[in-house]
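Long-time lurker. I teach an intro course on protein structure, and each term I like to show students one example going from raw sequence to a predicted 3D structure in token notation. This year I'd like something fresh instead of my usual example. Would anyone be willing to generate the tokens for the chain below so I can use it in lecture? Attribution to the forum is fine with me.
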Amino acid sequence: MTEQKIDNVLNLALDASDEELNEAYDLKTGYDEIDDVWEVINRYNGDLDELIKEGISVTYLLAGYAILKVPKQRLAQVSRLSQVIYMEKPKSLYFAVNDAKADSCFQGIQTRRGGVLSGLTGRGTIVAVIDSGVDYYHPDFIKPDGTTRILYLWDQSSVAGSPPMGYGIGTEYTSEDINNRLTLLPGESGTEQEVGTDFSGHGTHVLGIAAGNGRASNGKYAGCAPESDIIVVKLGRAGDKSFPMTSELMQGIDYVIRKAVMLNMPVAVNISYGNSYGRHSGDSIIENYIDAIAGIGKNVVVVGAGNEGVAGRHASGVLSNNSENVELAVYEYTTPFSIQIWKNYYDDFQINVYSPEGDMALIRKESGTGRYSLGNTELLVYYGEPTPYNINQEIYIEMIPDGGLFESGIWRIELVPVTIVSGAYDMWLPSGAAISTETAFLTPASDTTLTIPSTGRNVITVGAYDSATDAIASFSGRGYTAGGNIKPDIVAPGVDIISAAPGGGYTSRTGTSMATPFVTGAASCMMQWGITEGKDIYLYGEKLKAYLINGAVELPGFSRWPNPIAGYGALCVEDSIPE
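-- Reply from a regular --
Happy to contribute to a lecture. Here you go:
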């Protein structure tokens, strides 16, 4: 299938057999095989009400986006509607965890005497964490009077069936609902798994850094905005324990922005998830969506740069007159995975793929899906076209071994120039837990290892450093973007960070997931100063980013600022407030 308004991977997935879909997890993401329905992200003009009348599920988002659930046989027809601009299948999202406040200059804006906080603590603002859930029984998210600090909790994975108005999944809980549950001991209700249960502990840890009040530690492990209000979105699908999807993240962002506008409060949104699907130039559909909602209400969106810094999952180069070979080490027992090759549309080069045994497949430049066999491995290949979001061309290769598991070996991708104008190319492997950590390019690129949506223009992109040594964490995603924009914007402590854990205690974690909420909490405190206290009612969005950049501290070991590793420097919230 080749539909111009459907993204490349969805076109390929629609051509794939049931067996191929079942083998390739990333192709199947978004597909409900029981109902034979695809969930898709849609950019549209006008309205989609006629689809609702026809029984198609439509969840309207802000700024002309929607999430549709469309029967497989109707996708092509729906994509051809005049009001449909573009449709994309969801992509899986992954934590940025590798399983300090003083280092970020919070001591200059907050004081605690006799257990009483004063200064800039996030009062009058909202910290929103879109993540894996929360332990709402944890004392750090409860006020001294025993009531919850959480205004709303949307558990997308709940089967209870009372979703927020306008959305079709999960269950929404208000502060009143949570307060009623706080009168019970954890587990007494017998339904706590339906109320944002944080099985991984990731969301609880992230929220603790951004906004925990430290009540369980007498203030020792208080977060950055300990008096902010809180909104939590737990990502996921009922009965599905696989990775969350970009469509769910977009709905979570939409929900948070609408709540903040309704409450007339500024909000700092924390996103510690990402993936590596896309050009990495800030023009993915989810990044375009975040850019579009940046002007709605008073918000700032903070995104982790990801943990792909030294993962070896990005390769790049410039073709001229000679062929180039990119070698890929595939670890034993690796499951099916994809390779994205991105190039300028006007460049033409031949692609040859060699297996460890020396078998070769010449990838033909053809419309639609190509199938190639190399020994016991099938290659599904889709030659894409430019889209409304990207002028570049993608060649998407899905590698599916017999039996679902690879044997170890070195694969080789040969690029043979035919007609070269620019010659620049990039290749990406999946990020995070989507692929074995040992599967990597043998000669990877050192830059542009950011995950998406951290390459977006209107987000604050956060890398990680070790505040004990002032050294950048080796895993921290590196810029610049493929379009040359400066990312990350800033770095924050992300190594051995102690924060809240399910059960009421604390634990240490490492990753850009831990660095991101430092900046989210800092943004909350700055919006308190500017908006809540009336000293700068426009202190949100890009203006707040500019203030953070202006206050950033240069770390040792760099001769050039900004740079692709540490951006403009390390977070220093005190120096970011113009007072």
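Some talking points for your students: Residues 463 and 491 are 4 Å apart (CA to CA). The radius of gyration is 23 Å.
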